[in-house]
Design goal:
The complex is a heterotrimer of chains A (about 130), B (about 650) and C (about 90). Chain B has 27 helices and 10 strands. Chain B is an alpha/beta fold. Chain B has a domain at about 5-235: P-loop containing nucleotide triphosphate hydrolases (Rossmann fold), CATH 3.40.50.300. In chain B, a hairpin with a 4-residue loop joins strand 3 and strand 4. The longest helix of chain B has about 35 residues, at about 475-510. Chain C has one domain (about 10-85). Chain C is about 75% helix and about 0% strand. Chain C has helices at about 1-20, 25-40, 45-60, 75-85. In chain C, helix 2 runs antiparallel to helix 3 (about 45-60). The model of chain C is unreliable at about 65-85 (pLDDT under 50). The chains are: A alpha+beta (about 130), B alpha/beta (about 650), C mainly alpha (about 90).
Chain lengths: ~130, ~650, ~90
């Protein structure tokens, strides 16, 4: 599992992706065109920016391409707490100095949660930003 | 809810040997539900070997049966990422040594956020154990127009589902009825694990490396939750409360938020003085009255002296501070319950990082506000050994609540109870300043350690902290929390502090004065001689020998210094006079510079032996505790000396 | 008479303080001695063993910090592990 994409970012092999694509969502009506849109990291969003989560991605590190298990665990936890494709997202606050941590509301069918993420954690979350 | 008045006519409750465990996310009202079910019949301890709290209580059901309820630490998933979650996972699987797996799992969810909180139910279902699901915050959900088709959800999940309102009396009726039903049924074969989609027999997640399989499992769980919610949930379009949004806009704002935090803390310390005055006076009067009663009814002699000067003057002078401690914790518990503390942790995260901690460690530091020990043990999660070391060395500077009686005593005696402009009382202001001084000095020391080469680099620690929805603090939770605090404090005074006071009394009374002695008896005793000897060390910073003596037992527990002063001064009174109140006594005999020097000393004061021994254990040697004690002693001495001479100069 | 009672109380308090404040290892050693002490006073081997087990249990559970709060004997918990490891 050396490092690429976890959780449904352009991973057609994962059955979950296909299912979530067809699941009804509140904001994204059409999903086919969505793939072509550019994704950005969560850390690039400004305050009050909104978007849709595209997925969690962790890049390979180290010469042998294996991931730091702590980083893997962090990515898994991000997925567990709801950063999955199709979730709606809004940045609500930044800690200072350095815009760290980032406060973000993430939600979808059934509820909205608010989490504070470090920049390095948030940088793993890729987002389709809404047009301002 | 409980068996009412009529219940007293029924047969006595029968204790069932089975155990129920509450499983669920943090912030879904699990603890409130636990409090509702068990009332004050809770036993709080620790799981062996870790700083994870173990809460067990006794639930009396309407049927008259009684069962044990275990409140498991909140967990987002059974893939554990912290000590808390590891304990929960292990207990639920029955893999925790010394803990039998629970007979019934009650999965507590937040009905207003099933998206997040239902997933662990799916995970737990795979374990195949008997299970119930509680949709908590059902009242809030209803108010928002969220509706769950319970019958359908029960069918889909294959386990009973009930609604609960943990903050309302009677809010757990359906849950208890369900538990009763299960207890009655439990001799039948256990419910077969649900065989719907997404259930796997190999429930064991990989340890260490997270594999693709684990991720797929989580995604399948998400999908299952989504499917269930599609089938059973109706919700309005707007999904988060506007009030929360507006509050967060202010409270998470870097400037406004910090201002609010400062004001909140400030008000807390104001209240500690202004609200405590009346109850404290009553407790003091009670102590005085008891002392006089004993003095009147007993002949003069050793035992009377022991009781009056040792017990009442000693331990009594500490117990007087119970109201202040309770007020402090009232604020802390209310802040905890309201959901505000994670916002404070968010604002302080960077500040904490400079001290080697994370924003999340702020919460236990504040809500414990009690001890450096949990802080030191929490450093186990810090990966870098040098970071960890510097955090351990700094932890004692974050105030421990045992300092409060000392601060309160001195402030009460020496800072006039004046009210400044805006209704701010001076005493509360000084207390606030002292706490801030502790935190600022911690940061200064961190900075110094950084310069000395112990790198305190950017925090690599995971944060991922939930900011829960705001809610009004729940009176029952507060009451139970305060009761626990009061019990802990009174126990501490009644056991270790009392014992030390008795021993101190002994050392301050023997050997007795030689015939023809002119000075108070205590001067000739063991303690008196020790005090006078120590005075050579402490005179330069303005401490008299009584203070010098009091600092010694203060090593065992900080509050003891107050009790020690009480005993020492009580014994200094020649003749039959019963000890006056300690506060006016030191006001008349100490100078203001001395009192302020003692306050400055206590900001840095060397640790109680328990903290030192924990440090020894955590760092694996005596070197670090010795360094810690030495640098704290040096700082305390310097600070006290500086304060003393500066104030002397200006008065 | 008063003096006698007072001294007894002091002894009890002193013993209690030492017990609570001593390092865990010291407590365990004391507990271990209690067995041989019981034997010396003529108790049967079984009684002595039971006394020793009880004393060891108490030694491991005692905590010097006085359970001021969230600690609640976490120091104890570690001692338990230490004790179990060495037992």
């Amino acid at each position: 599992m050396s490092g690429q994409v976890l959780a449904a970012l352009r991973d057609p092999a994962s059955p979950a992706v296909a299912d979530l694509h067809t699941a009804p969502r509140e904001r994204r009506a059409e999903t086919a065109a969505v793939d072509a849109r550019a994704t950005v990291q969560l850390t690039t969003l400004a305050r009050n920016a909104t978007g849709t989560v595209a997925g969690v991605r962790v890049d390979a590190m180290g010469a042998d391409g294996t991931l730091d298990p702590d980083v893997e665990r962090m990515a898994l936890r991000l997925i567990e707490i709801g950063f999955v494709q199709g979730a709606t997202l809004r940045v609500i606050a930044f800690g200072q100095p350095g815009n760290d941590p980032i406060g973000v509301r993430v939600g979808g069918r059934g509820g909205v949660s608010t989490f504070a993420l470090r920049r390095q954690e948030a940088s793993c979350v890729w987002v389709w930003p809404d047009k301002p | 809810m409980r068996v009412g008045l009529a219940g007293q006519a029924m047969t006595a409750a029968t204790l069932d040997n089975r155990r129920i465990a509450l499983l669920g996310n943090p912030n879904c009202g699990k603890t409130a539900l636990f409090n509702l079910l068990t009332g004050s019949r809770q036993k709080v301890a620790n799981y062996a070997g870790v700083t994870v709290e173990r809460k067990e209580g006794l639930l009396t059901l309407p049927s008259g049966k009684q069962v044990h309820v275990l409140d498991l630490p909140g967990a987002y998933s059974l893939n554990a990422t912290s000590a808390d979650e590891t304990v929960t996972r292990d207990v639920v699987r029955g893999k925790r040594a010394g803990e039998a797996p629970p007979d019934l799992l009650v999965c507590v969810t937040d009905a207003t956020n099933l998206r997040l909180t239902l997933r662990i139910v799916i995970e737990a279902r795979r374990l195949g154990r008997p299970m119930l699901v509680a949709l908590n915050l059902a009242d809030v959900a209803r108010r928002r127009g969220i509706h769950v088709d319970i019958a359908r959800l029960e069918r889909e999940l294959g386990v009973p589902v009930v609604e609960t309102v943990a903050v309302r009396t009677g809010g757990a009726e359906s849950l208890m009825a369900s538990i009763d039903a299960w207890l009655a049924r439990a001799h039948e074969p256990a419910n077969a694990p649900a065989s719907g989609p997404g259930v796997h027999s190999d429930a064991e997640p990989p340890h260490g490396h997270v594999g693709q399989a684990a991720i797929d499992a989580v995604m399948r769980d998400h999908h299952e939750v989504h499917r269930l919610l599609d089938a059973t949930l109706t919700e309005p379009v707007a999904s988060i409360s506007h009030v929360d949004d507006r509050l967060d806009r202010v409270l998470l704002h870097p400037v406004a938020g910090m201002a609010v935090l400062t004001v909140v803390l400030f008000l807390m310390f104001q209240a500690v003085f202004s609200w405590a005055k009346w109850p404290m006076e009553h407790i003091q009067a009670l102590m005085d009255g008891t002392g006089q009663l004993v003095a009147r009814h007993m002949d003069d002699g050793m035992l009377r002296s022991l009781l009056v000067d040792g017990v009442i003057a000693g331990a009594g002078s500490v117990i007087v501070f119970l109201p202040q401690i309770l007020i402090l914790f009232l604020f802390i518990l209310a802040l905890e319950d309201s959901g505000y503390l994670p916002r404070a942790a968010f604002l302080l995260d960077r500040v904490m990082a400079s001290v080697g901690l994370t924003g999340r460690s702020f919460i236990p530091l504040l809500s414990s506000f009690a001890c450096a020990i949990p802080g030191i043990m929490a450093t186990r999660t810090i990966a870098d050994p040098r970071d960890r070391l510097s955090t351990i060395l700094i932890a004692p500077l974050m105030t421990c609540s045992a300092r409060l009686p000392v601060y309160a005593l001195l402030i009460g005696a020496f800072i006039p109870a004046r009210t400044l402009a805006g209704g701010i009382n001076l005493q509360g202001l000084v207390l606030f300043a002292l706490y801030v001084a502790g935190i600022v000095s911690a940061m200064a020391v961190a900075w110094v350690l950084q310069r000395l080469g112990r790198r305190s680099g950017p925090a690599h620690h995971t944060l991922m902290m939930e900011l829960p929805a705001y809610r009004w603090p729940n009176a029952r939770n507060l009451a139970i929390g305060l009761w626990e605090r009061a019990r802990i404090f009174v126990t501490r005074v009644g056991t270790i502090i009392l014992s030390l006071m008795i021993v101190l009394w002994f050392l301050s009374t023997f050997p007795g004065p030689p015939p023809g002695a002119t000075q108070p008896a205590i001067t000739y005793s063991l303690a008196g001689r020790l005090g006078h000897a120590l005075q050579y060390v402490f005179a330069p910073i303005g401490f008299n020998w009584q203070i010098a003596i009091a600092l010694v037992p203060g090593l065992a527990a900080r509050e003891v210094a107050v009790g020690a002063l009480g005993t020492v001064y009580a014994l200094s009174v020649s003749g039959d006079a019963v000890a006056e109140q300690l506060s006016p006594l030191i006001q008349h005999t100490w100078s203001l510079p001395t009192a302020c020097a003692l306050l400055a000393w206590y900001v840095f004061a060397p640790q109680c032996v328990a903290t030192l021994s924990v440090t020894r254990r955590e760092t694996g040697g005596w070197r670090q505790p010795v360094i810690m004690a030495s640098y704290l002693f040096a700082l305390a001495y310097l600070a006290a000396g500086l304060t003393y001479h500066v104030m002397r100069h200006f008065s | 008479m008063q003096t006698l009672i007072a001294l007894l109380i002091v002894l009890a308090a002193a013993g209690y303080s030492v017990w609570k404040l001593a390092p865990a290892a010291f407590r365990r050693r004391l507990a271990a001695q209690s067995g041989s002490l019981a034997r010396a006073t003529g108790a049967s081997a079984e009684t002595a063993r039971r006394i020793e087990i009880k004393a060891m249990d108490a030694a491991v559970n005692a905590s010097g910090c006085g359970n001021c709060g969230p600690c609640k004997g976490c120091a104890t918990g570690q001692a338990k592990d230490d004790g179990a490891a060495s037992a």
